[in-house]
């Protein structure tokens, strides 16, 4: 039988991320492709204790729960955000099934087909997929390593009347960059001037190699809670399998998102929510985050050393100040999509830059993850990758 | 600031279910309003053991997982469905965050604004909310206690060219009724004749008071897996807090739903999925379901006795053969929405029938849940309810 589907399925994409996860699962390939934290660093004992407490704390914990999320968890989130100078009330917070769901539900209440969203270029692949599925028009704003450029941003706001500006300003995916405080203030000023909502996607904010150097989040700068919708997650700091994220912003938006969530899945897994409350009560998560961050920092350094040893005119990258990724520019004439096949044959994987682009892709870019491989594997994998890059370079020159 | 939202938020509804959950949480009200299983019957020890095993079975269980759901869980689902004569492959199955998400994701890949969906009237409230949020047009088909009536169904299919027929044919919510085998076959024949997809929502199928009497599911009748998309859940048989449901159907539809799910929330909580696999391996879930069903059967009988004692011309109900609900018709001149306030004042709650209707609501209907209250509470609550009904009856007569 021939099925009649919705128009939005035309914008679906059997995505790079899915294909990447399949590569990751092949045993003999060293993968720098995914965006995974290292499972060997997971706080398994703390998670086990927390779930045990959640399940034995009374049968109500196993019953249906409120759509907005457990109040005890939202109180914890409010306290944790305070330390980043984000002052919000528990009723402005909604617990989601990972921050991916936050992006989806926000899109559901905000966007009609044809609405314009401004982003950086490149930007988070799976956000682009969500925006595409709502049949929106995503337009890239010119940026440098400090963030979007004011002139182009203001021009595009005036011209295109965007519904939203979506940014990952802190240790971004895929570029690993940090917006300067000046550019953050500039963005907020324009958001206020032209009444545009900003979505600040901050999954990596806690993985910071130099905590002193991290500028205020956009949500902290939006003191009146008027323009910024902020989302983050415990997937990088506790464990991804719990699928717990949250979204916080103007109450009117959060209330509509709660109604959307009720239709979408009633509520987020509440065993995990109860467990997370116990974990935040009993476990020193901040110390744990410092521990894993210092391990990730060492791994970043090892990968950087390998990158620095490649003698190739035109190869550039930005040293990450946090997060999980290197974004590498190879010489202009190289094509990383072609390169991936050769790399996997040689036992190493990465993500070609192409799917992260909104506008015309720069085919010579690639993303490397440094958090999910041990130092040994990073060294071996980078040797393989350097070899593949150098061979390919010789072929095109 | 004035926010610009999507058009679909106009169809959102600060729903009855949400308000009901608030009533449920008021301590001194005996509530027959919710659709909750009894938390005192939850298999807490088995759940605890299962989560313990899931968390300590290797750190991979705490990592990101595949969008389709764990293969081991999908294999279990395939085996369990076989016993209902639903023969499907694991790749035709997708694990969802409860069956609510199955309805939402199915809608996302199927419906454009204005598409027609045929349903019974009344039908499942939260499915209507999902359909409304996709700006579809839901049209009710004339039905009796055996299911939809062929003449009206065929006429509406021919006239309206529906994209889908949505039904809860087994121990339905809210009516607690069971479609006859004859009507099921009739529905399938028309679906085949006119190429219409059928969504069979089956959350209550396992709560059956007379297993011999339960007719084949629609999915079992659709042997070639061409027309029926079937969804069910473990929320009524294990615990709701895990949020584990599934959807199974034609592979082309399921593959698109997987893409939609990736954008929606990447994957379903995988700690819960691993735990469920352990629970299905180690625990006699079928015996547990028989145990809770026999408790629910006794409660249904107690509620039935109380209903039978009301001396009121025009009060009718159907005796449930399974599931969780009585659907009660009061005399025509009574209004159950008005009645609810008086009932809550007297310490008892129910759901007025109105929000379950697609077409013009019958204001004299109400839904009573018998699974979430002990026999004592059912007796006390029903005494209060009978009193409120009789007082209100005197006022309108």
TrEMBL record, chains A, B:
Say yes or no: keyword Ribonucleoprotein present.
no
List the taxonomic lineage: Bacteria, Bacillati, Bacillota, Bacilli, Bacillales
- Pfam families membership: Aminotran_1_2
GO MF entries? pyridoxal phosphate binding; transaminase activity
Query: Can you state the subunit structure given in the record?
Result: Homodimer.
From the Swiss-Prot or TrEMBL record, give the protein name: PLP-dependent aminotransferase family protein
**What cofactor(s) does the depicted protein rely on?**
pyridoxal 5'-phosphate
The source's superkingdom equals Bacteria
* Recorded family membership: Belongs to the class-I pyridoxal-phosphate-dependent aminotransferase family.
Q: Which residues form the Aminotransferase class I/classII large domain?
A: 30-385
Q: Which key words are in the record?
A: Aminotransferase, Pyridoxal phosphate, Transferase
Cross-referenced InterPro entries, in alphabetical order?
Aminotransferase_I/II_large, Class-I_PLP-dep_aminotransf, PyrdxlP-dep_Trfase, PyrdxlP-dep_Trfase_major, PyrdxlP-dep_Trfase_small
A single BP term in Gene Ontology: alpha-amino acid metabolic process
Species in which this protein is naturally found = Natronobacillus azotifigens
- Is the keyword Transmembrane in the record? no
């Amino acid at each position: 039988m021939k099925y009649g589907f919705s128009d939005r399925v035309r914008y679906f994409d059997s995505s790079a991320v899915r294909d990447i996860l399949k590569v990751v699962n092949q045993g003999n390939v060293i993968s720098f492709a995914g965006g995974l934290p290292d499972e060997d660093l997971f706080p398994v004992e703390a998670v086990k204790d927390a779930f045990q407490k959640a399940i034995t704390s009374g049968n109500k914990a196993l019953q249906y729960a409120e759509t907005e999320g457990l109040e005890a968890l939202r109180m914890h989130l409010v306290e944790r955000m305070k330390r980043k100078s984000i002052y919000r009330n528990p009723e402005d917070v909604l617990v989601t099934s990972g921050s991916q769901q936050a992006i989806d539900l926000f899109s559901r209440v905000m966007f009609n087909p044809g609405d314009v969203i401004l982003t950086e270029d490149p930007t988070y692949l799976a956000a682009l997929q969500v925006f595409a599925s709502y049949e929106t028009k995503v337009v890239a704003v010119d940026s440098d390593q400090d963030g979007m450029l004011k002139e182009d941003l203001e021009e595009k706001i005036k011209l295109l009347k965007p519904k939203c500006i979506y940014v990952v300003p802190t240790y971004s995916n895929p570029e690993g960059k940090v917006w300067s405080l000046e550019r953050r203030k500039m963005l907020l000023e324009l958001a206020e001037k032209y009444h545009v909502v900003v979505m600040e996607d901050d999954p990596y904010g806690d993985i910071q190699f130099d905590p002193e150097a991290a500028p205020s989040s956009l949500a902290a700068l939006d003191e009146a809670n008027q323009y910024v919708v902020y989302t983050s997650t415990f997937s990088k700091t506790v464990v991804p399998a719990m699928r717990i994220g949250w979204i916080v912003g103007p109450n009117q938006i959060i209330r509509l998102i709660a109604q959307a969530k009720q239709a979408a899945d009633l509520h987020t897994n509440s065993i995990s929510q109860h467990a997370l409350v116990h974990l935040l009560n009993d476990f020193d998560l901040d110390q744990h985050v410092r521990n894993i961050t210092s391990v990730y920092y060492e791994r970043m350094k090892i990968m950087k050393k390998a990158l620095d040893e490649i003698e190739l005119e035109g190869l550039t990258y930005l040293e990450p100040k946090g997060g999980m990724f290197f974004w590498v520019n190879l010489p202009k004439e190289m094509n990383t999509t072609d390169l991936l096949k050769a790399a996997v044959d040689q036992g190493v994987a990465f993500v070609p830059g192409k799917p992260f682009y909104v506008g015309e892709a720069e085919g010579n870019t690639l993303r490397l993850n440094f958090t999910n491989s041990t130092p040994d594997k990073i060294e071996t994998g980078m040797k393989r990758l350097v070899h593949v890059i150098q061979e390919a370079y010789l072929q095109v020159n």
